[in-house]
Write a sequence for this structure.
């Protein structure tokens, strides 16, 4: 229990610090690399929440594909890498006020409503966990209860693929 | 572990993402901040799922997986749009993309 809390503390600190650096750094490539730290910490948080399949998918899709896509985007939209010009607009102060306001409201509501609700302890073996809420159970749910949304998502991905090609094609 | 520690982490990441969307003017950086927002929502989905029984846990995980998929599609199309803007105007500065401003 204590080990989990220590792990959560380290993960939360690293993800928040990396996220703040990501939105304040002057270098676009560094922002993409800080995004990797945030996404990795979030994946570890999923493991703390006993959602190992989501964690692996997060690593594969986000760090494996999306960050590479971002780096390609940076490469294709900039003449030279490194420091170049201003990346922030002049509403930075207003944006910070808005973000802090939302954080205040969200924090107040969450603390007020959920207080110190504890996550339930799972005293099960690995096999029991896998059969009830692990990867096997998630796979069964996707291909039975959520079969129609799953197919719709595959059509969405196809549409996004075609759309991206049509948009980015030179003609 | 408390439920709130995950929810508050999600809230903090969400607000950092909102700041990034509002304060950045490079199109690629705005898309990165949107990814941050989607990630914070996923933490909430999985954490709320843990509060219920097995069915709730699976529902939360499946929803998180769908959000990840939609985020991947969104980044693909978004970066294609940013690329098109760059090709037409040789800039990804969102302050200069004001063609539809009245």
């Amino acid at each position: 229990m204590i080990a989990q809390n220590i792990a959560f503390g380290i993960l939360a600190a690293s993800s928040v610090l990396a996220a703040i650096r990501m939105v304040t750094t002057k270098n676009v490539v560094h922002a993409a690399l800080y995004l990797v730290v945030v996404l990795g910490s979030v994946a570890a948080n999923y493991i703390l929440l006993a959602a190992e399949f989501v964690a692996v998918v997060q690593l594969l899709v986000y760090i494996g594909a999306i960050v590479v896509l971002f780096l390609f985007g940076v490469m294709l939209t900039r003449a030279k890498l490194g420091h170049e010009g201003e990346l922030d607009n002049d509403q930075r102060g207003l944006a910070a006020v808005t973000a802090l306001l939302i954080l205040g409201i969200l924090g107040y509501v969450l603390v007020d409503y959920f207080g110190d609700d504890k996550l339930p302890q799972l005293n099960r073996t690995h096999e029991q966990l896998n059969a009830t809420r692990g990867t096997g159970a998630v796979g069964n749910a996707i291909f039975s209860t959520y079969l129609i949304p799953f197919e719709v998502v595959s059509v969405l991905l196809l549409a996004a693929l075609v759309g991206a090609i049509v948009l980015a094609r030179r003609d | 572990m408390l439920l709130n520690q995950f929810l508050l982490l999600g809230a903090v990441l969400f607000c950092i993402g909102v700041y990034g969307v509002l304060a950045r003017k490079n199109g690629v950086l705005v898309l990165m901040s949107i990814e941050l927002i989607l990630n914070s929502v996923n933490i909430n989905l999985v954490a709320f799922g843990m509060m219920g029984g097995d069915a709730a846990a699976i529902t939360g995980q499946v929803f998180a997986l769908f959000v990840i998929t939609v985020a991947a599609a969104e980044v693909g199309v978004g970066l294609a749009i940013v690329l098109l803007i760059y090709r037409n105007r040789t800039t990804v500065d969102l302050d200069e993309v004001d063609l539809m401003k009245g």
Summary: The radius of gyration of chain A is 20 Å. Chain A touches chain B through 85 residues (CB under 8 Å). The mean pLDDT of chain A is 89. Residues 2-88 of chain A form a domain with the Four Helix Bundle (Hemerythrin (Met), subunit A) fold (CATH 1.20.120.1200).
